[in-house]
């Protein structure tokens, strides 16, 4: 596990070990596991805590808000204090928050604990990404971030299945006990495999003023902003699918829960495969070209879905096909857009990663409820948001991020 991912590279890159990358992949599983294992239990939670479905749904919203804020704060703090200690602190808080969720006596305690869990989880995720940016550059950076996204993409497949199995055998609180155990495992993995990747001489001074200065620097970089839009808009399109696909396939088309789970897993596998293919092509095929292919595919899927929703009642075969194309396209858009955004601001990797995470999770939190505005009998709002997300992503690539780029990008 200590062998370099790229033998013969410079000493700075040689520290990027297989164990370190595996640990960062583990960290990226926090959000999908904490979300997907818990969502199937919403009815149980509402009944046991004597609350409404809306209040239970709010625990998901506060988690997303916490994720966004945690990434916005965690990146700059790690630019000042280093990566390893802030990462370990965040994982400890995540673990404690998971235990509080497991023991929560009321929906108010649950909502607060979910916010803290999301905040600390977002903090850990952004530092994991910043560690990769510290130790890799160029095609290697793109390759490793695609591997992280690709392997990490298995979590949305595993999460609902594990959550459903837990509900069959026990109750919803076990999901949070499992998350607490995973938190402890992440702490051990960091202690074993993750060294300090940001030496003191490369750290930035702390304080709100310097954070704002760093934020202005990264947001003043036009290419960074362009790629930020590429990944953020794609994330919005992705969560339009996540929020409504169950209604489209089950309520509107009569697909069984088991069949829906299989379709969801196949779509997630498509996204994972696309990210891994992009990782293999890094340095050989221009990353911008791969992003554009994904954008065109997502736009075509969204337009086909919109036509089907408006005039043909969203037939099952069309929905299944469009969802697969859309999800596979995300594997080309989100990790590649994020990698090029990080590469555009190498002097502020933590702040750059923080702003990325904030924008992407805000997009997820805003789009998810918008996609459901039409209720559970129409796919028009979802399809419209997918088209808008793909178009906005293309605007980021072709207009905002337009300009000279280095070879391979």
- Poorly predicted runs are 1-14
Q: What would CATH call the homologous superfamily of the largest domain?
A: MFS general substrate transporter like domains
- Report the strand count: 0
Helical content band: over 70%
Mind telling me the C-alpha Rg? 20 Å
Structural class: mainly alpha
Q: Indicate the CATH topology of the largest domain.
A: Growth Hormone, Chain: A
Biggest sheet features: none
- Approximately how much beta-strand content do the residues carry? under 5%
Kindly, what is the distance between the CA atoms of the first and last residues, rounded to a whole number of angstroms?
Answer: 29 Å
Q: Please write the string of helix (H) and strand (E) elements.
A: HHHHHHHHHHHHHHHHH
Reconstruct the topology from this structure.
Elements: H1 11-14, H2 18-28, H3 30-36, H4 42-48, H5 53-81, H6 84-103, H7 107-135, H8 138-152, H9 155-169, H10 173-193, H11 208-219, H12 222-251, H13 257-281, H14 287-311, H15 316-344, H16 349-371, H17 380-400
Helix pairs in contact: 2-7, 2-8, 2-10, 3-9, 4-5, 5-6, 5-7, 5-16, 6-7, 6-10, 7-16, 8-13, 8-15, 9-13, 12-15, 12-16, 12-17, 13-15, 14-15, 14-17, 15-16
Q: Would you give an account of this structure?
A:
This protein has 409 residues and is mostly helical. The protein has 2 domains: 1-203, Growth Hormone, Chain: A; 221-409, Growth Hormone, Chain: A (Up-down Bundle), CATH 1.20.1250.20. The protein contains 17 helices and no strands. It has helices at 11-14, 18-28, 30-36, 42-48, 53-81, 84-103, 107-135, 138-152, 155-169, 173-193, 208-219, 222-251, 257-281, 287-311, 316-344, 349-371, 380-400. The longest helix is centred in the middle third of the chain and has 30 residues, at 222-251. It is globular. It starts with 10 loop residues before the first helix and ends in a 9-residue tail after the last helix. Residues 1-14 have low confidence and may be disordered.
């Amino acid at each position: 596990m200590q062998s370099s991912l790229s033998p013969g590279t410079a000493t700075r890159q040689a520290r990027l070990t297989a164990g370190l990358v595996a640990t960062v992949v583990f960290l990226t599983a926090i959000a999908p596991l904490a979300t997907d294992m818990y969502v199937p239990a919403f009815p149980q939670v509402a009944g046991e805590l004597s609350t409404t479905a809306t209040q239970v749904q709010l625990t998901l919203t506060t988690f997303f808000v916490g994720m966004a804020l945690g990434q916005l704060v965690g990146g700059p703090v790690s630019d000042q204090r280093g990566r390893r200690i802030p990462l370990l602190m965040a994982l400890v808080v995540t673990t404690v928050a998971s235990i509080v969720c497991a023991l929560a006596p009321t929906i108010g305690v649950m909502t607060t604990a979910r916010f803290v869990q999301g905040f600390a989880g977002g903090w850990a995720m952004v530092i994991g990404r910043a560690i990769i940016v510290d130790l890799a550059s160029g095609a290697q950076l793109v390759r490793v971030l695609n591997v992280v996204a690709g392997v990490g993409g298995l979590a949305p497949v595993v999460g609902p299945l594990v959550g459903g199995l837990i509900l069959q055998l026990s109750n919803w609180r076990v999901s949070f006990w499992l998350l607490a155990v995973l938190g402890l495992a992440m702490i051990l993995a960091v202690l074993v495999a993750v060294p300090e990747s940001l030496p003191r001489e490369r750290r930035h001074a702390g304080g709100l003023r310097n954070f704002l200065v760093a934020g202005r620097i990264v947001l003043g970089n036009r290419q960074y902003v362009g790629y930020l839009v590429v990944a953020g808009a794609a994330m919005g399109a992705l969560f339009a699918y996540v929020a409504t696909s169950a209604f489209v396939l089950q309520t509107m088309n009569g697909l069984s829960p088991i069949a829906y789970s299989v379709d969801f897993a196949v779509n997630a596998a498509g996204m994972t495969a696309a990210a891994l293919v992009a990782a293999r092509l890094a340095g050989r095929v221009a990353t911008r070209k791969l992003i554009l292919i994904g954008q065109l595919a997502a736009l075509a899927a969204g337009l086909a879905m919109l036509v089907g929703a408006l005039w043909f009642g969203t037939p099952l075969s069309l929905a299944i096909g469009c969802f697969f194309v859309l999800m596979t396209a995300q594997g080309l858009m989100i990790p590649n857009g994020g990698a090029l955004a990080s590469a555009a601001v190498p002097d502020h990797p933590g702040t750059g990663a923080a702003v990325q995470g904030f924008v992407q999770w805000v997009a997820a939190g805003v789009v998810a409820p918008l996609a459901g505005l039409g209720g559970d009998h129409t796919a028009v709002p979802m399809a419209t948001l997918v088209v808008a997300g793909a178009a906005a992503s293309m605007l980021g690539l072709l207009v905002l991020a337009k300009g000279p780029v280095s070879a391979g990008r």
